[in-house]
Amino acid sequence: MRRLITWFGMVLGAAAFAAAAQQPLKIGFGMSLTGPLAGNGKAALIAMEIWKDDVNARGGILGRKVEFVYYDDQTSPSTVPSIYNKLLDVDKVDLVVSGYGTNVIAPAMPIMMRRNMMFMGLFGMNVNSKFDYDQYFQIMPSGPEPGIGWTKGYFETAMALEPKPKTIALVGADAEYPALALAGAREQVKRSGLKVVYDKSYPPNTVDFSPIVRAIGATHPDLVYVASYPPDSAGMIRAVNEVGLKTRMFGGGMVGTQFAALRTQLGPMLNGIVNYETYAPEVADKFPTLEAFLPKYQARAVKEGVDPLGYYLPPFAYAMMQVIEQAISATKGLDQAKLAQYMHGNEFDTVVGKVRFAGNGEWAIPRMLAVQYHDVAGNDLAQWKKPGRVTVLSPAEYKTGSVKTPYQ
Amino acid sequence: MEFSSALFLNAIVAGLLLGGFYAAVSVGVSISFGMLDVVNIAHPGFIILGSYIAFILSDRFGWDPIAVSLAVSPLFFLLGAVIYRIYYICFERRGQESLRGLAFFFGILFITEVALVLVFGVDYRMARTAYSDTTWRLGSVDFPLRLVVPFLVSLAMVLAVQAFLTRTFFGRAVLAVAQDPLALRLMGVRTLRVKEFAFALSIATAGIAGAFLIVIQPVQPSLGREYIGLVFAVCVLGGLGSIWGTLAGAFILGLAESFTSTFFGPSWAPAVSFGLLLGTLALRPSGLFGR
Amino acid sequence: MSNARFGLAVLAVAIVIAAASRLVTNDYFFSAAYTVLQFVVLATAWNILGGYTGYVNFGSAAFFATGAYTSIFLYKAVHAPLPVMIVCGTLMAALLGLAVGYLTLRMRGVFFAIATLALSVVLYTLVVNWDYVGGARGAYILQPRQMPFGFTRYVQVLFSTMLLMAAFSIVVARVIETSAIGRGLAAIRDDELAAECAGVPTLRLKALAAATSGGLMGMAGTTFPYYLSYVEPGAAFNLSYAVNSIAMPLIGGMMSWMGPLIGALLLGTVQQVVQVTVSSEWNLLIVGFLLVAFVTAAPRGIMGWVSRRFGGSGP
Fold it and tell me: Within an 8 Å CB–CB cutoff, is residue C278 touching chain B?
């Protein structure tokens, strides 16, 4: 009889455990599926869904299947409070991550702070500087001082040139990311003693960049630092090729050259440009797990009409979810404070390498790659999938070669 | 910054090239808004549609996008006729003010944008042409063919429209309908047909202008919204109902943008352009060449 | 019903709603309702110049952003309390409306619309280049820890404030509508030339309407920075403000204060619902179709359709 009761109890217990384990683990977020940054948003979503499929194939996290609840934030900050309030109060998700970009991360911060929830950000520049929230984390590898870390590679390479450059031109779009990147560049300029001979910005929907490039050229700068989004990156590069710009180093913070679209459109025009990347095939051996992820992403990206290379945002979106998975598994639960504490104190193994966070939630050590494009011929995409078009200049542990100057 | 003659000359050339392009995108609005009083706020949406069609055909078959758009323009003409028919039946016949037409076209703008997103995705596209990478140099002045070719074709298109309006019977009917539709009806002209033709023509020009756009810069579906202000500014500045006015307005705005970008700060270019517009509206509301 | 009694009735309704909302525990209601109420204010404000006077304002975003950036400026300069921000923002936007009114209302209606569009762009460029309020980099406005009247969450404060603003704008609209000013505006709308000949002080009335309309739009924008905590020019000058403030009165009916209210509640709620259900590019498609369908099928708006069906004159 006792054995029957024990057996019955065990079955009940197992059933209860199974029932609890059946409850899916819901992760909620807003993502840019429409609007100007939708290309990146959709790419990130694909990466996150690949992660979800991978995790669920292994049995989920803590035995629970992962489910996403997400809404389109239209790349518009005014949708964010409603979306995150709904996710937390109505959909009752267990965990929340951010959308893509400072614009949609910042409005969610007060909501996260009020509920003391751990909040993981996807590529926002220095969002935590004003909020000072100890449960905020950022997967962008720009380091504890994001403006400095973002621009470090370019300036490090520039100041190592012989003879030392003296003057610099700064230019960028009138939008949130370029303005922040340029602020970082100005800080670097102060630290390196360069003289600024041109410091202007342009409206994001500028059609013709040749007047700007000529004005820059008229100041004869040794260096040119550009912070731009894909359409104006393309415009600036074209204009520089048409007008001709005599300078020693050109580039810096241009979003867009990391994507297939611009690489195939501009082709050889990219040669000589020094820009930032987060990954290049030249350093593939440093990121062994990434090689397994990229083909999966690329297959789905082609089907959905998004960037078919996936070198920029997708690996980090995937890594962001990996960090969360490892934190939950390690703390064996969803206690937000414990998760945050664990994330502050530990190193994570992800597709983008080892990730460690600083006190303010940014990466402890910046790891933006500064690269120079070379030997690009023609407009095909295949040449970019293997090593040979990109020289990694910085940081030192990833360096594959030296910069070739002058730019033109 | 030194004020060099090279900088000055290049600013003029860049401004004119830009102005030619602006004229192409605005000439349709000059017809639909200037002459027919239809507030077609969806005009930039049709331009983007034209961009994508030119891109797809030139990408698939290797033809020149501008040539493609000229070949495809009859389709845009038909599209314009259909849309005008709908607009007329729903709004003009009932004698509603242009405000309802405005909301109608806003709806069309959004629907066009979404349709493009669903079919083509949200990534930026840009057309490659044989001359995209060539630049002619004349002394110290550069003429990038990426801008020169659209400029020349757009000038040709605008001049063709002007010639059509002033020299052909149907064209003169369009001008007449803008001035006095009642008189025209009394003379036995089917004004609906005339207006439909004019609107269709304006959409056809939008389709062709779309090819210029995608040769000059990368395009994505929501780009149309950025051009709403510009196309109406060009028409109003130059004077509604006048093609020469549109051309002049376009050149003025192109030059203003180019000079501000070169000598003062590109950031101020929109303020200068639209400030000019505000000033013109305050001092001479009918525009430079308007009636 | 006299204006005083109407005002009291509206205030009473607002207070009841605010009190009832204290029972709501989920914050989603407050953020969604805040957005819908914001559009009630914008639509009602727009209609004063658009529906009553017949002048289409394409630059609602400019006035809205004026309110928002006045708040940001005051926050950065003197850390002003919210009521001060609201009053100053409304005044600044009203001044802007007055200035725009005197400068542009000498133009034929359609040119006024283009001028407001140009104004939006000029103001946007000015703000982008104004570093003190953040420029293109954006400005961070942190929600205060202290909350009045025993509120526990700041979004509730924002909701209640917006509720009062909506009530206020509706009362203002009705006061104008039923007064001599309203009759003068209607005369201008019907035939400006005839009105002038009849002795209506058209320029002064138009300027008053523009100032009131602009001021109320600015008022809607004053709490926006607190709602988002981070404002950059693109968010404040978003095209959706211009489109919605035109579409909502169009859909609801432009003849009286009820039209914009109905239009804003309807379209605003639909947008909120679609955002969290369908949620993708179809969102925009639905808005587009709604716009087209309504202006085609119900030309005088919902109010017009109702009054045709059930006869009688409006409130």
Answer: no
**What are B98-112's pLDDT values in tens digits?**
677 888 888 899 889
CA pair distance A79, C35, nearest whole angstrom: 9
Task: Provide the CA A296 distance to its chain's centre, in angstroms.
Answer: 19
What is the dotted CATH code of the domain comprising A146-277+374-398?
3.40.50.2300
Element (H, E) at A29: strand A25-31
Q: Is C121 on the interface with B (CB under 8 A)?
A: yes
Under CATH, which architecture does the A23-141+289-356 domain have? 3-Layer(aba) Sandwich (3.40)
Instruction: Judge contact between C14 and C168, C-beta under 8 A.
Output: no
Backbone φ and ψ for C159, nearest 5 degrees, come out as -60, -50
Measure the CA–CA gap between B122 and B125, rounded to whole angstroms. 9
Question: How close B6 comes to chain A (CA, Å)?
Answer: 9
Task: Tell the residue number behind the tokens 């590109």, with chain if given.
Answer: B266
Whole-number Å distance between alpha carbons of A93 and A91: 6
For the stretch C235-277, pLDDT in tens is 899 888 888 898 899 888 888 899 999 999 999 998 888 888 8
Min Cα separation C162/chain B (Å): 27
- Express each pLDDT in C78-124 by its tens digit: 988 899 999 999 999 999 999 888 877 676 777 788 888 889 999 99
Is the CB of C296 inside 8 Å of chain B's CB atoms?
A: yes
Residues facing A121 on adjacent strands? A138
Closest among A306, A364, A342, A295 to A146, alpha carbons compared: A364
pLDDT over 80 at C11, yes or no: yes
Mutate to test the interface with A, among B137, B261, B268 (most CBs of A within 10 A): B261
Cβ contact (<8 Å) for B124 and A230?
yes
| pLDDT attached to residue C314 | 47
User: What backbone phi and psi angles, to 5 degrees, belong to A69?
Assistant: -125, 115
Mean pLDDT lowest among A85-94, A96-105, B136-145, B250-259: B136-145
Long-range contacts of B234-237 (CB under 8 A, 24+ apart): B234/B22, B234/B23, B234/B25, B234/B26, B234/B29, B234/B30, B235/B26, B235/B29, B235/B30, B235/B33, B235/B34, B235/B287, B236/B277, B236/B280, B236/B281, B236/B287, B236/C111, B236/C114, B237/B276, B237/B277, B237/B280, B237/B287, B237/B288
Put simply, the answer to whether B270 touches C120 (Cβ < 8 Å) is: no
Q: How many CB atoms lie within 10 A of CB A12?
A: 10
Segments making up each domain of chain A, as ranges? 23-141+289-356, 146-277+374-398
> Cα–Cα distance between B71 and C269 in angstroms, integer?
45
d(CA A139, CA A149): 13
Question: Please, is C313 exposed, middle or buried when counting C-beta atoms within 10 Å of its C-beta (0-12, 13-18, 19+)?
Answer: exposed
Rounded-to-10 torsion of CA C6, C9, C14, C20: -160
pTM: 0.90
Nearest to C302 by CA among C290, C292, C294, C314: C294
Q: What is residue A407's predicted lDDT score, i.e. its pLDDT?
A: 83
Widest pairwise Cα distance in chain C: 58
| Pick from B142, B263, B266: CB nearest A203 | B266
Q: Domain B5-283 belongs to what topology?
A: ABC transporter involved in vitamin B12 uptake, BtuC (1.10.3470)
Please compute, for residue A97, the number of CA atoms within 13 A of its CA located in the half-sphere on the CB side: 29
Q: Angle formed by the axes of helices C239-252 and C27-50, to 10°?
A: 70
**Pick from B108, B117, B277: CB nearest C281:** B117
Out of C235, C272, C283, closest to residue A82 by CB: C272
Q: What's the average model confidence in pLDDT over B22-45?
A: 91
